[in-house]
Amino acid sequence: MWKIIDSGKGRAEQNMAIDAQLLKDLSPDASPILHFYDWEGECITHGCLLNPHNLLDMVRVKSLGINIVKRPTGGGIIFHLYDFAFSIIVPAKCKYYSANTLKNYHCINSRIKEAIKKCIKLESDPSFLSKDHLPLDANCAHFCMAAPTKYDLLVGKKKIVGAAQRRQKQGYLHQGSIAIALPKKDFLHKVLLPGTQVAEAMLQNTFFILKGDWKTYELQEVRATLKQQLQKEFTQ
Fold first, then answer.
1. pTM of the predicted protein model
2. First to last CA, the chain
């Protein structure tokens, strides 16, 4: 039986610390956990092996009061402005656990795929990417929504879900982010280093649920619907 945790809004440090502690405290024969959370203010997370100083204008990031923190998982940079974030913690003795990381991605994303199909009207069903995309430039490879990778979930040819995992002997932590709306151009212009194609790559490679001049209430509605449907898909 799945355990559901909804920790609500928190700063990036708090959200990542909860996930790290859930993995640390996990027993191999415990129930799997679905963890929902939201972001307090503008937040950025990056993979545990990534140095954001080489990829972002950190002076601007700090001057704007953006909360940036390292994730306990790997992967690239994610802007947590208009996304839906969640984590899944799977113990080693659970039927959803595999020693093969790609199998774990496929297992989790298969359920996310079904949730998205029931939440959003799409012209075609979401599908899995069979191989990594070639990034527009070297920097793009380090931004999660700018460079789709194998087993990412796509709508058409565009990525809708970003994810990273960390596996330990007691189980694994899967952190996911579903793209809802594109970060504003002025925000990207402020925080990205000049001379890169990251903004262009995000627009080219990411499927955003909300387009055009969307309203805040629409963002809230999409998040609520995704939360409800994800819980159904993982607990049924």
1. 0.94
2. 9
pLDDT tens string 127-184: 888 777 788 889 999 999 998 888 889 998 899 999 999 999 999 999 999 999 999 9
The CA-based angle 114-170-22, given to 5 degrees, is 70
User: How far is it, in rounded angstroms, from Cα 138 to Cα 153?
Assistant: 22
pLDDT in tens, 181-190: 999 999 999 9
Q: Which CATH number fits domain 3-235: 2.60.40.10, 3.40.50.720, 2.60.120.620, 3.30.930.10?
A: 3.30.930.10
For 45-141, where are the alpha helices, taking DSSP H only? 58-63, 101-119
Contact 133/201 with Cβ under 8 angstroms?
no
Other beta carbons less than 10 A from residue 34's beta carbon: 20
The DSSP secondary structure of 125-186, one letter per residue, reads: --EE-SSPPPPSSTGGGGBGGGS--TT-EEETTEEEEEEEEEEETTEEEEEEEEE-SPPPHH
- Mind listing the pLDDT tens digit for each residue in 20-64? 999 999 999 999 999 999 999 999 999 999 999 999 999 999 999
> Can you tell me which residue has the tokens 């640390």?
24
What is the pairing mode between strands 3-10 and 33-39?
A: parallel
Which amino acid does the sequence have at 142?
A: H
Residue recorded with tokens 């998040």:
223
The length of the chain in residues reads 236
pLDDT tens, residue by residue, 214-234: 999 999 999 999 999 999 999
So where are the chain's domains? 3-235
